[in-house]
Structures are given as structure tokens and as C-alpha cells.
């Protein structure tokens, strides 16, 4: 079609000409986002060639479409991260970044993988809190092949095709917890470790670091087997309750993830508040209350807003 041959071309005609929907053409011309860079270029090129009677947007003005995949568990951490990502996106402005947030159960890595694979066909960037699972690795490989950068969030996947990982050093976090618990617990006894899902490297590394420090520097403390809470509150309650019933020699508890409310309740039932040195992660209402009561000895916090800022800029 020659330039100027269709000065009065309609959006429907333009859509038919290039083989896309009218809604897609409308989103491109009105800068609403949600269209891949390839299709955006195709629509704008066709509109220019047709001499469409309107001011056409520049390609570089389209906001990046970013999708953030987070855990759907009911802990404080992920809803707070979601809020912080939204705040950062708002501060950047809709012309720079459009944020999409997707919550996936931690027990469904194949569901997460399918959604990542679908997302890399629609987005210009992926941020993911993901399982160390073959399906997730494969989905991130597809992202790389499609030219869509992926950043891991909170828990790293160093063997995957990700652009980078931005977050705290989880091994050092576990080592810090071990050092503090060891120094705060002079009397000998048993230490419980409560952990989330082991297909997340963050939990594995925290436990590894904690175990290394206690084993090397505090021989008066004996580590029990890891209580696998699996991010299920009922299971955490049952495991901690069984451990406290089994032994009065428990002098410390380290929790790597969800379940602080359940641990606090178990300690209260057994009248061990303040008697057991309990260390956990994140500062929020529950941990602040337990710190004030003296039940919780220490919490290792991380700045969720800074996490969101690092990943979005």
C-alpha cells in the first residue's frame, strides 16, 4: 500500500491488514501497553505507511511491561513486597513501567513455570520468586531465548538462565542467626530449626549457614533435625508442639520463614516464653509484638522497598 493511499483508514482496516485484533491496534496507538515490542513496531509501521491521520507515538515511549511472580502464602513478606513494587512503579510513572503481579502457590512449581513461559511472550521483563525446579529452569531458559530478561527475587536460582539476582545473602543471614543464637544461649541444650520448603534456595542456605556456625563455634548446642514446616501453619504447629512435648532440654529455636505466630503460641502453651532463645526473620506486627513481650529474642529484617527499587530501576 502506498503512503497516503488510505488517509481515512479505520483501526479495523489497519488491524485486518497486519493480522492483529482491533484492541491490539488501539492499545498501541493509545499507549496502553500490554503489547509485545515486535507487534508494536508492526502496528506503528503499518500506520505510518497508511498515512493514518493522527500523531503516532514513538516506540521508545511505551512503558516496559514487567511481571512479578510472588508466593501466595499468607506471610507478611510477599504482600508487603507486592505493595512496594506497586509504589515503585507508580513513582516511575505509567509511561516508564507497567507492573503486573501474579501470586502462585509455592507447592505448584509447574504452574509457576507455565505462567512464566506464557509471560515471556507478553512482557519485556520478569521478576520471579521461584522454586529450584526443572520446569522453572526450563521456563527461564525460554525467557532468555525470547530476549526477555529475568531477575530472581529473594531466593536465587544460580543455575538458571536469569539475568541476575538482587537480594540479601541468605547464607550469611543464616550464619548471623547462628552467631547471635549461640552468643545469647550460654546453657547447653538442643536447638530446633524450623524451615520452609527446601526447593527454595533461600531456606536451604539459611539452614546451611546457621548449622555451620553452631557446629563450628558453639559445641554446647546440639542441632535437631530440621522441622520441615513446608509453609503450612498447621504442620508447623504440630511439629513444634511435638518437639516441645518430647524434650524440656530445648534452649533455642531458629525459624527461616513462615510460622512465627504458631511458634509464639506453642512457646506460650508450654510456658517457655523468654526461656527459649528464638530467632526468626522479618520485622512486622507479629514479630514486633513478640519482641516487646520478650518471647522473641531477635529478628533479622530486610528492606522490601529497597528490594523492589533495585529490581524495577
From TrEMBL:
GO molecular function, one term: DNA-binding transcription factor activity
Transcription as UniProt keyword: yes
Superkingdom, natural source: Bacteria
Keyword vocabulary terms for this entry: DNA-binding, Transcription, Transcription regulation
GO biological process: transmembrane transport
Entries under PROSITE patterns matching the protein: HTH_LACI_2
Domain HTH lacI-type: 9-49
Name of this chain's protein: Transcriptional regulator
Gene label: rbsB_3
Amino acid at each position: 500500500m502506498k503512503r497516503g493511499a488510505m488517509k481515512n483508514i479505520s483501526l479495523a482496516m489497519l488491524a485486518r491488514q497486519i493480522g492483529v485484533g482491533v484492541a491490539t491496534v488501539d492499545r498501541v496507538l493509545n499507549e496502553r501497553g500490554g503489547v509485545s515490542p515486535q507487534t508494536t513496531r508492526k502496528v506503528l509501521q503499518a500506520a505510518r505507511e497508511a498515512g493514518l491521520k493522527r500523531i503516532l507515538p514513538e516506540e521508545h515511549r511505551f512503558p516496559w511491561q514487567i511481571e512479578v511472580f510472588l508466593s501466595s502464602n499468607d506471610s507478611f513478606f510477599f504482600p508487603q513486597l507486592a505493595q512496594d513494587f506497586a509504589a515503585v512503579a507508580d513513582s516511575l510513572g505509567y509511561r516508564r513501567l507497567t507492573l503486573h503481579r501474579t501470586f502462585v502457590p509455592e507447592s505448584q512449581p509447574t504452574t509457576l513455570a507455565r505462567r512464566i513461559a506464557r509471560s515471556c511472550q507478553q512482557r519485556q521483563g520478569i521478576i520471579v520468586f521461584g522454586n529450584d525446579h526443572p520446569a522453572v529452569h526450563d521456563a527461564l531458559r525460554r525467557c532468555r531465548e525470547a530476549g526477555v530478561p529475568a531477575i530472581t527475587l529473594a531466593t536465587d536460582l544460580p543455575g538458571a538462565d536469569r539475568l541476575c539476582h538482587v537480594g540479601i545473602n541468605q547464607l550469611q543471614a543464616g550464619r548471623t542467626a547462628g552467631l547471635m543464637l549461640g552468643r545469647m544461649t550460654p546453657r547447653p541444650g538442643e536447638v530446633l530449626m524450623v524451615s520452609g520448603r527446601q526447593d527454595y534456595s533461600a531456606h536451604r542456605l539459611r539452614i546451611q549457614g546457621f548449622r555451620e556456625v553452631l557446629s563450628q563455634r558453639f559445641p554446647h548446642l546440639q542441632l535437631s533435625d530440621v522441622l520441615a514446616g513446608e509453609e503450612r501453619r498447621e504442620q508447623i504447629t504440630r511439629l513444634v508442639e511435638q518437639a516441645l512435648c518430647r524434650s524440656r532440654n530445648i534452649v533455642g529455636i531458629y525459624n527461616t520463614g513462615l510460622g512465627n505466630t504458631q511458634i509464639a503460641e506453642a512457646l506460650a502453651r508450654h510456658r517457655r516464653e523468654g526461656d527459649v532463645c528464638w530467632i526468626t526473620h522479618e520485622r512486622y506486627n507479629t514479630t514486633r509484638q513478640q519482641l516487646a513481650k520478650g518471647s522473641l529474642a531477635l529478628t533479622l529484617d530486610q528492606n522490601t522497598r529497597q528490594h523492589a527499587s533495585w529490581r524495577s530501576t
